[in-house]
Amino acid sequence: MTLITMLTTMSEGMLRTIGIFVLTLVGSLPLGMIVALLRKSRFSVIRLLIRVYISVIRGTPLMLQLLVWYFGPYYLFGWSIRGWRFPALILGFIVNYAAYFAEIYRGGIESIPAGQYEAAEVLGYSKGQTFMRIILPQVIKRIMPSVTNEVITLVKDTSLAFTLAYQEVFSLAKQISASQTSFMPFLIAGIFYFVANYVVAFIMERIEKALDYYK
Amino acid sequence: MIIEMKNIRKHFGGLEVLKDISFVVDSGEVVSIIGPSGSGKSTLLRCATFLETIDGGEITYMGERAAYTVEDGKAVYVPHHELRHFRSYCGLVFQQFHLFPHYSVLKNLIDAPVEVQKRSREEAVETAMGLLRKMGIEDKADAYPYQLSGGQQQRVAIARALAMKPEILFFDEPTSALDPELTGEVLKVIRQLADERMTMVVVTHEMPFAKAVSNRVLFMDGGVIVEQGHPLQVFDNPQEDRTKQFLRVFER
Amino acid sequence: MMKKIIATLMAFTMLAAVPCAAASDAETASGAEAASGEDFVFKHGFDLDYPPYSYRDEKGDIGGFDVEMAQAVCEYYGWKYEPVPFNWDAKDAELNAGSCDCIWSGFTMNGREDDYLWSKPYSDNTQMIMVKKDSGIEKLDDLAGKIVGVQTSTSAYDLLNDEEGQAALAQTFGSLEVYETYTIAFNDLKAGAIDAIAIDVTSGNFLMSGETDYAFLDEALGSEQYAIGFRKDDTELCDKINAALDALAKDGTFDKIGKKYPEIYDYLTLNK
């Protein structure tokens, strides 16, 4: 296999990896916020459910969760899982990352001084306005470093898609390495992950800088 | 009459913080509330500005009842959406300023008028700039709170409360978080507002200030108003032992 | 603490549900009911990490002896071929859930006779020891005290851990290093980090193609056969595949495809 063929084949895997990455973020960043807010719900049943959800997700490996998402519908309900592989994969990633983001959001929300809520209340802001205009912008600034960490972990975690045999870059690297008895594919994958994380770190740094206008 | 609080009761857990307190503030009055810490001064302000709910009693703003006591002695409030209307009557200046750090000074002043009161942006900006001018910090309109001194931040906080055009302004120890050399500039602003006949209630430890600026002084201790009256009377000729005892600490 | 216990319990409840449900619902996933028509889609389950039976070929496409044979069978019946690459560790879940119709990927039947419905075996496979030619290791006994590498979840690995297999021999090794892939193990052998590799002869031939410094010991570790594994109730499909294998062996297709894979050609059985 020529290097060009190897790169061409693996570039498809890279696109799939980026696909997992982007879809996971698009789904889990907002879902995490909903989870974080539900965790403070007035209803104790919802609070309990959310706490169970977060501890199950954090207490079990993502790889296992992916298997449950993919095979679960069949083994639990006898449903056909044809065409379910990719949706299950993305769902698994989103639900997993949402739990981690929810905890980051919760920490951020709790770190905002009560005085901010009181000042907003006295000025007549509604609960929704207070959250969207006063609290959330400050939360985002405070949690950026933790979110960056999590996003970088996600870049590397995408390789767990091999569990469901999704042909992302690391699966392809393993396969091509086996058929070509060569380490080159791993080197290519390594460079890809490094560059991807470099780009992520760069973007996150820009966002953090953009939020640096106040303290 | 701007506000009337009648037979206000409030307890936290088993601790009774306000024991049947009644008082009235008339338009243009400046009332100072003094007293040792834990006497219920701040709680009274927080009840008046709806940050805390009273357990019993009655709160009336501009002749409209916001909270009243039903037969079993428990206080009930008007529905949530009506309470917002009552909130617009009062402003509160906190000890710790509580400016919004992510907003510029100007944005701190215009956001609530525009977003909550739905006033036009142009008018809100105009009002805000006028207030900043009055506070002597016109040049700080585009600065962020962290770039200001404590005294400047507190003046912005006062301007923010005034930008809502309240009928009455409450101050909760407005100079306690400031270095001594910065308290003067904040007190000067409050004095100026008093000259303009702004209705104000000031919880403070600045006795000379209270004496010079207020029309009436309330001395609170243990959840009750022990004594009230004209500042010259309360400060120079207190009737109650507890008042004398408290003031003696400040004379030294 | 309580939270952790709950989390663990939840996880295990979900896992425990897997085999129970699998037993009762397996028939719903059976591909056999439709296996007669032209519209039948044959879902070929395989591992892409197993050259040259199923792997990424020179062009980066899915290929290999098993893949080409499965395609030939589909052509024979006019079925539609659908490749289902899976993660080898999840192969049973994939098969039982019906995401594939068979495991056809250099799959050893020995020791698993009762776990699947098996096609006729189509390839022999011997487990060998690969060493550097100049290593001085000439027979299995010479491995005493040496470091031997093996890939996890392979026949060679199973054999070295099986009391009835070569576990006793493995006891004499200095150590047994378990690798994720043979590529890494082979690299360690080249680098001198290990002394020998226990490996299927076919995989070993594949690794050594183009290399001159390595050889198998004459003594084999063990021997077994490859066949196609089906769900146990899927007799109709199994019969059809067996019939097709016979026909393709007879008309020379099996031999023709086999010739494309010299590393394993000698071990293929249906053409002899």
* Range of strand content of chain B: 25-35%
Strand content of chain A: under 5%
Q: How many E-type strands of chain B?
A: 11
Write the H/E string of chain B, N to C: EEEHEEEHEHHHEHEHEEHH
Give unreliable regions of chain B as ranges: none
Overall radius of gyration of chain A:
21 Å
Q: Count of DSSP E strands of chain A? A: 0
Written account of the structure:
The complex is a heterotrimer of chains A (215), B (252) and C (272). In chain A, 40% of the residues are buried. The radius of gyration of chain A is 21 Å and the shape is flat. Chain A contains 8 helices and no strands. In chain A, 80% of the residues lie in helices and 0% in strands. Chain A is an all-alpha fold and 215 residues long. With 252 residues, chain B is α/β, with parallel strands linked by helices. Chain B has 9 helices and 11 strands. In chain B, β1 and β2 form a beta hairpin. In chain B, α3 packs across α4 and α3 packs parallel to α5. The model of chain B has no long low-confidence stretch (mean pLDDT 93). By secondary structure, chain C is an alpha/beta fold. Chain C contains 10 helices and 12 strands. Chain C folds into 2 domains: 124 residues, D-Maltodextrin-Binding Protein, domain 2, CATH 3.40.190; 98 residues, D-Maltodextrin-Binding Protein, domain 2, CATH 3.40.190.10. Classes of the chains: A mainly alpha (215), B alpha/beta (252), C alpha/beta (272). At the A-C interface, α1, α2, α3 and α7 of A face α1, β2, α3 and α6 of C.
Summarize the structure.
The complex is a heterotrimer of chains A (215), B (252) and C (272). Chain A has 215 residues and is mostly helical.
Topology at a glance:
The complex is a heterotrimer of chains A (215), B (252) and C (272).
Chain A: H1 3-38, H2 44-59, H3 62-77, H4 85-110, H5 114-122, H6 127-157, H7 169-180, H8 184-210
Chain B: E1 3-12, E2 15-25, E3 30-34, H1 41-48, E4 56-61, E5 64-69, E6 75-77, H2 80-87, E7 90-93, H3 105-115, H4 121-135, H5 150-163, E8 168-172, H6 180-195, E9 200-203, H7 207-213, E10 216-221, E11 224-229, H8 231-236, H9 241-251
Parallel strand pairs in B: 3-9, 3-10, 7-8, 8-9
Antiparallel strand pairs in B: 1-2, 1-4, 4-5, 5-6, 10-11
Chain C: H1 2-25, E1 41-46, E2 55-56, E3 62-63, H2 65-77, E4 80-85, H3 91-97, E5 102-108, E6 117-118, E7 123-132, E8 147-151, H4 155-161, H5 167-172, E9 175-179, H6 182-191, E10 196-200, H7 201-208, E11 214-216, E12 222-230, H8 235-250, H9 253-259, H10 262-265
Parallel strand pairs in C: 1-4, 1-5, 8-9, 8-10
Antiparallel strand pairs in C: 2-3, 5-12, 6-12, 7-10, 7-11, 7-12
Helix pairs in contact in C: 2-8, 2-9
